[in-house]
Specification:
By secondary structure, this protein is an alpha/beta fold. 39% of the residues lie in helices and 14% in strands. It has a single domain (46-353), classed as TIM Barrel. An 8-stranded parallel beta barrel has the order 1-2-3-4-5-6-8-9, surrounded by 5 helices. The radius of gyration is 20 Å and the shape is globular. Mean pLDDT is 88; it is low at 1-40 and 44-52. The protein binds (3S,4R)-3-hydroxy-2-oxopiperidin-4-yl beta-D-xylopyranoside.
Length: 355
């Protein structure tokens, strides 16, 4: 399970130098560039369907403007991934740009493309404090008005995608670093009950959909992961429809859990009867080959924790190539380089999650 770092480094650097296709069985002592290209280790491919064998489904956030074009971005995605999260196409500013209705055109095209290619779609996100259209944030709402609008929004969106989008981030980033409820427009105007309301409305609109709360900085012990435990426990006790928690896992060498720490946190959430997925993993590192080795070890820690927990059903990175990341390409946070070459991080993922 744990080849030495030297092997990962050798394979990874060879990969970066242009040997496009390596498997972890390659003998690091030989010149891999002379080998016939072999497929990069697959995780849940081929087949595209979730393995069902207790192995998490591998997913990535995607930009629809890039994915829709036949080309290297699309090819790389289809070669390796079985699930996608729209990086922006299902946020409120995209789906409700004006007060008078919805714009489902891009999201529909994305969902159609995904299902044609047997890719599962994880919906992201119904209630968040960012990417809320200006016409919502700038208006002076009464509590009753905003509550009615949010109910209408969630109901319409979840119904629209019923049967096609099987899981949703219903509430994204509800907590502050200290563990209190974030003072978003939703919390300020609707009060703390908005979390349970949103989950109930989503469940009513599609009783089959798996519903998630999604949050960052839960991967280490501290006030935020403890507060999330209490929030989830309270929701479960009140029988609010909730299926899982998404750990975003935006990590860096400075903000990284140990394996023990991450496993303990994930087990604790799972103990509430929830799925515990990795929903937005990336590891910002900056320049240098050594950084990529450290990055791979962080990816390995997270992949191993997910693989070892039966309730971790989805291992999703926030993008897949350094060419397209919200953090900027210079941070090199993703498993494939800007030119689509597998990095040591990819080899670590494949090693932990692959067959
Ligand atoms: C980011 C997208 O990647 C960017 O393209 C966009 O400009 C801002 O949002 N947590 C989340 C994601 O839940 O929705 C965010 O995505 C990254 C942080």
């Amino acid at each position: 399970m744990f080849p030495s770092l030297a092997i990962v480094l050798t394979l990874g650097v060879a990969g970066l130098l242009g040997a496009r296709a390596l498997t972890r069985d390659d003998d690091p002592g030989v010149n891999v560039e002379r080998h016939e290209p072999r497929p990069v280790p697959a995780v849940t491919k081929p087949g595209g369907a979730p393995s069902g064998a207790g192995r998490p489904v591998l997913g990535a956030a995607v930009e629809w403007a890039l994915l829709r074009e036949p080309g290297s971005y699309q090819r790389l995605f289809l070669q390796h991934y079985s699930s996608l999260t729209p990086e922006n196409a299902m946020k409120m500013d995209a789906l409700a740009p004006t007060p008078d209705g919805f714009d489902f055109r891009s999201a529909d095209a994305l969902v159609r493309w995904a299902l044609d290619h047997r890719i599962a779609v994880h919906g992201h996100t119904l209630v968040w404090h960012r990417q809320v259209p200006a016409w919502v944030t700038e208006r002076d709402w009464t509590r009753g008005e905003l509550r009615a609008y949010l109910k209408r929004y969630i109901t319409a969106v979840v119904r629209h995608f019923r049967g096609r989008v099987r899981s949703w981030d219903v509430v994204n980033e509800p907590l502050t670093a200290r563990g209190s409820l974030r003072r978003s427009i939703w919390e300020r105007v609707l009060g703390p009950g908005y979390v349970a309301d949103a989950l109930r409305w989503a469940h009513a609109a599609d009783p089959e959909a798996r519903l998630y709360v999604n949050e960052f900085d839960l991967e280490r012990f501290g006030p935020k992961s403890a507060a999330m435990y209490r929030l989830l426990r309270a929701l479960r006790r009140r029988q609010v429809p909730l299926d899982g928690i998404g750990l975003q896992a935006h990590l860096t060498p400075q903000w990284r859990p140990t394996g023990r720490e991450l496993r303990a946190i994930m087990r604790r959430y799972a103990g509430l009867g929830l799925q515990v997925d990795i929903s937005e993993l990336d590891v910002a590192v900056g320049p240098g080959d050594a950084a990529l080795v450290e990055q791979a070890s962080i990816y390995r820690t997270v992949a191993a924790a997910c693989r070892r927990l039966p309730q971790c059903g989805r291992f999703t990175t926030w993008g897949f190539t350094d060419a397209s990341t919200w953090l900027g390409s210079a941070q090199r946070p993703l498993p494939f380089s800007s030119t689509g070459v597998p990095k040591p991080a990819w080899l670590a993922i494949a090693d932990e999650l692959g067959p």
